[in-house]
Design a protein that fits this description.
Number of helices: 14
Structural class: alpha/beta
Helix content: 40-55%
Strand order of the largest sheet: 2-3-4-5-6-7
Bound molecules: S-adenosyl-L-homocysteine
Strand content: 5-15%
Shape: globular
Radius of gyration: 19 Å
Number of strands: 9
Largest sheet: 6 strands, parallel
């Protein structure tokens, strides 16, 4: 096997690779290369963030969705789930609880639920901001119009997470139905940045039909777009989707991608995701040791957690928020890290 360590060194020195080099790296790396990249990435994280891990409280406030993404468990066509919506006062209660546990960022995530008009979202955002002016709000509601994104921003939203899912248009089309468009998703990301949000992109590792070239394309996209955050996790099949029988993504490749992104973009906010914690019991710890610096514990009410099932076997669906918070603290301490009580803004 060809040695690709020189490519990791070049990435570290020059902060970029070309498509052929990225592709070679993803096609030929071995466990030693992965550990080599993880060590460099971990040192970079420690020098930028110290041993502090930022936490974000995730509130999954609706699983209604008008879209039919082929990989996703809350897709419109899935008849086997009970749909729910939280009320504004239920959402505020999650924030109250979260604030008392030291969360200073709340992430509101949902399917693309038309019930939550711009007015409703703006109302929720301004209520949270009024009660907790020292907290950041991240929205993750999918593709909206420029006017809607602006309205949320003016109401006080600080950040927006919209994974690009894959930077290759023809791959995107294999993961989504015909009524969704790669170009629109990319336009949304550009609008969000233009408006002034801290923007998060991201992709699943090992999604059906993904090739080494596709991940190379993701890296080039991240390098050019310069997002403030990159959320990546392994693809995990959901039994009630068309992709139910596809293989799950690889833990090692996900960790390798985290490290390479940290090396390329030293200050980027990089979560060790719930999907990473689902594919391996210590996946999130491994993520941090590979260069991640953010964890997003769940603050949703226990009564709805099992209903926000994007993939099978999602972790923490039976736990109370307080348990999740304590669990993360212990997990981080076990590897020599501490949870920070702060907004944890991008500081580029
Ligand atoms: N409706 C919002 C939120 C989507 S859910 C939006 O469009 O942004 C958040 C993320 O979960 C998705 O962007 C996707 O990357 C991830 N996800 C969905 N199904 C998944 C699966 N089966 N395995 C792993 N990740 C999945």
């Amino acid at each position: 096997m060809k040695n690709v360590r020189y490519l990791i060194d070049r990435l570290n020195a020059e902060k970029r690779l070309d498509k052929a080099e990225w592709t070679e790296l993803f096609s030929s790396f071995d466990e030693g290369d992965r550990e080599y990249a993880a060590e460099i990435a971990r040192d970079i994280s420690l020098s930028v963030f110290g041993n502090k891990i930022y936490i974000r409280g995730l509130i999954e406030f609706s699983n209604h969705c008008k879209n039919d993404c082929l990989y996703c468990g809350i897709r419109r066509s899935n008849q086997n789930i009970t749909r729910y919506r939280l009320t504004e006062s239920e959402i505020l209660k999650c924030c109250d609880e979260g604030y008392s546990y030291g969360f200073r960022t709340f992430v509101l995530q949902s399917g693309e639920d038309m019930f939550f008009t711009a007015d409703r979202i703006c109302g929720i955002v301004s209520s949270i901001k009024e009660r907790y002016p020292d907290c950041a709000i991240t929205l993750s509601l999918g593709e909206k119009s420029c006017d809607e994104y602006k309205a949320y921003f003016d109401a006080g939203a600080d950040r927006y997470l919209l994974r690009h899912e894959t930077a290759d248009k023809s791959h995107y089309e294999k993961l989504h139905p015909d009524d969704m468009s790669f170009d629109n998703r990319m336009d949304c990301l550009r609008m969000l940045k233009e408006i002034g949000y801290q923007v998060g992109v991201g992709m699943m590792i090992g999604s059906p039909f993904q090739t080494a070239e596709d991940i190379a394309e993701d890296m080039l996209f991240i390098s050019g777009f310069k997002p403030h955050m990159v959320g990546i996790g392994p693809f995990l099949p959901h039994s009630d989707t068309p992709f139910h029988s596809y293989e799950k993504g690889s833990l090692e490749l996900t960790l390798f991608c985290l490290s390479l992104i940290r090396i390329m973009h030293q200050k980027v906010l990089l979560p060790a995701t719930t999907a990473l914690g689902t594919i391996h019991p210590r996946g999130r710890e491994k993520g941090v040791l590979a260069g991640a610096n953010v964890i997003m514990p769940n603050l949703s009410p226990t009564s709805v957690r099992k209903k926000y099932q994007l993939y099978d076997n999602k972790i923490c669906t039976g736990d109370e928020s307080a348990q999740c918070r304590g669990c993360i603290e212990r997990r981080m301490q076990s590897i020599g890290y501490e949870v920070a009580v702060s907004r944890g803004d991008y500081n580029g």
